[in-house]
């Protein structure tokens, strides 16, 4: 083999070293063989378009909490909070504890049709739980819309109901979504 042929082979080898990874990446990206990344990474069901809650005060406390400036996990319920509803409340309590120092960026709201749904036992287990007054409940429930007992809704700091976690959702999925949101978001 002469020097000219050897030089050409080396040049082709260098060109292949740069072109082969690009060609391989393009093949996997544009082919439909399961290697393409998924479109979405969230675990909850994205509500599109988001529904906006009013900025009415949720309670008579001063300063009054509202669906603004913090992220909110909302558990709607009927007249009674059954076992599925109580499980959802336990999940969001554990999720708030998991937040550690970011706990001030999150509030938990219980939104029953009747204020009597929060039994003294549930109130004792969930001291940080916000139960809105009658007028705030009446305004928020139609915006939340249809739900199943045990559903958990995520409300952003602008008051938009943006994500639903159906009853029985794994707590780890909720924590992963919140971890991403709180890490990337500068609001709330």
Give the secondary structure arrangement, pairings included.
Elements: H1 3-30, E1 45-52, E2 71-77, H2 83-98, E3 106-112, H3 120-125, H4 134-144, E4 152-155, E5 160-165, H5 171-184
Question: Can you describe what's shown?
Answer:
With 188 residues, the protein is of the alpha+beta class. It folds into 2 domains: 1-39, no CATH class; 45-184, 3-Layer(aba) Sandwich (Glutaredoxin). The protein has 5 helices and 5 strands; from the N terminus they run αββαβααββα. It has a 5-stranded mixed β-sheet with strand order 1-5-4-2-3, with helices on both faces. β2 (71-77), α2 and β3 (106-112) form a beta-alpha-beta unit. It is elongated, with a radius of gyration of 25 Å. The mean pLDDT is 85.
Order of helices and strands: HEEHEHHEEH
CATH topology of the largest domain: Glutaredoxin
Overall number of structural domains: 2
Computed over alpha carbons, the radius of gyration is 25 Å
Roughly what is the average pLDDT, rounded to an integer?
85
Classify the secondary structure makeup into a structural class.
Answer: alpha+beta
Q: Which strand order do you get reading across the main beta sheet?
A: 1-5-4-2-3
Distance between the termini: 70 Å
Task: Give the CATH H-level superfamily of the largest domain.
Answer: Glutaredoxin
The residue ranges in which pLDDT falls below 50 over 5 or more consecutive positions are none
CATH class of the largest domain: Alpha Beta
Q: Could you say which overall geometry the principal axes of the C-alpha atoms support?
A: elongated
Q: Helical residue percent?
A: 25-40%
**Largest sheet geometry:** 5 strands, mixed
| CATH A-level architecture of the largest domain | 3-Layer(aba) Sandwich
Q: Count every helix, treating DSSP H or I runs of 4 or more residues as helices.
A: 5
Total strand segments:
5
Quaternary structure of the protein = single chain
């Amino acid at each position: 083999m002469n020097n000219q042929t050897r030089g050409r082979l080396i040049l082709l080898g260098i060109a292949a070293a740069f072109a082969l990874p690009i060609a391989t990446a393009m093949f996997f990206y544009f082919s439909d063989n399961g290697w393409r990344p998924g479109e979405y990474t969230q675990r909850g069901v994205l509500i599109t378009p988001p529904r906006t809650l009013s900025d009415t005060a949720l309670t008579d406390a001063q300063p009054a909490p509202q669906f603004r400036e913090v992220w909110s996990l909302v558990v709607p319920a009927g007249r009674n909070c059954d076992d599925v509803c109580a499980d959802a409340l336990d999940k969001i309590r554990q999720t708030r504890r998991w937040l550690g120092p970011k706990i001030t960026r999150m509030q938990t709201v219980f939104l029953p049709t009747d204020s009597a749904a929060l039994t003294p036992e549930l109130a004792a287990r969930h001291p940080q739980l916000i139960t809105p007054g009658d007028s705030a409940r009446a305004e928020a429930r139609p915006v939340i819309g249809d739900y199943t007992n045990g559903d958990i809704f995520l409300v952003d700091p602008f008051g938009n109901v943006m994500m639903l976690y159906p009853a029985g959702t794994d707590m780890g999925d909720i924590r992963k979504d919140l971890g991403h949101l709180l890490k990337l978001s500068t609001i709330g």
